[in-house]
Amino acid sequence: MVNTCQNPEIFKEMNNAFAYLPQGVIWKCQCSHWPKEVQLAANVKIVDWLPQSDLLAHPSIRLFVTHGGQNSVMEAIRHGVPMVGLPVNGDQHGNMVRVVAKNYGVSIQLNQVTADTLTLMLKQVIEDKRYKSAVAAASVILRSQPLSPAQRLVGWIDHILQTQGAAHLKPYAFQQPWHEQYLIDVFVFLLGLTLGTVWLCGKLLGVVVRWLRGARKVKKT
After folding, report:
1. What is the DSSP track for the chain?
2. Where residue 2 falls among pLDDT bands split at 50, 70, 90?
3. CA dist 85 → 107, 143, 201 (Å)
4. What pLDDT shows up at residue 220?
5. How far apart are CA 98 and CA 71, in angstroms?
């Protein structure tokens, strides 16, 4: 998030909120981008990079503060970790709306972040077991697969061999001629329709003009 949002005040408020937690906080960001005027809380550790999925899999993890990207949300659900979302852009807002709707966590807009508000939200998700229960149930569903990835791979390879290439699974676009793929036929049709309409309007306009001229001549005579 430090790379995405350059407002030092946001990080100051977040850092102050983390300071109120009894738990330790691991914050992923580039140390060189950290605002120099913000004094890091004693329970906060900054790292340039970490294996996020492995960290979320640790049994001591209580909460995941995330911007709400699709990969981050899916990793948190897979490992049964409730979330506090601070969406920044793109699909993150929509992802966090679904997270809140499913009771996997809560969300707050960046322009609404204060130390007090964020502290309350962090403690709410940590202490209210409903969030952990909801995301843990989703984790069971996500992990419960009848076949392992290796078994699915072997099964699909066998299916392709048996059907001699699995042509029935190929997208219809691969079977279309090039002029249909690039919508040339549609463009030609619309162009012809437009030109035909212009030509017809021109003819009608010519008829109207000739009729008006004829009417004027009749009046003069």
Report:
1. -TTT---HHHHHHHHHHHHT-SS-EEEES-GGGS-TTSPPPTTEEEES---HHHHHTSTT---EEE---HHHHHHHHHTT--EEE---STTHHHHHHHHHHTTSEEE--GGG--HHHHHHHHHHHHH-HHHHHHHHHHHHHHH--SS-HHHHHHHHHHHHHHTTTTGGGS-GGGGS-HHHHTTHHHHHHHHHHHHHHHHHHHHHHHHHHHHHHHHHHHHH-
2. very low
3. 4, 23, 58
4. 65
5. 14
pLDDT in tens, 5-39: 567 788 889 989 999 999 999 998 877 777 788 88
| Cβ contact 92:72 at 8 Å | no
Distance in angstroms (rounded) separating the CA atoms of residues 114 and 133: 27
- CATH superfamily, domain 8-143, is Glycogen Phosphorylase B; (3.40.50.2000)
Find where tokens 């229960």 sit. 133
Q: Where are the domains of the chain?
A: 8-143, 146-175, 176-220
Q: Give strand pairing partners of 156.
A: none
Q: If you average pLDDT over residues 93-110, what whole number do you get?
A: 94
Where does the pLDDT of residue 97 fall: very low under 50, low under 70, confident under 90, or very high at 90 and above?
A: very high
Task: Encode pLDDT of 57-86 as tens digits.
Answer: 999 999 999 999 999 999 999 999 999 999
- Measured between alpha carbons, how far is 20 from 51 in angstroms, rounded to an integer? 26
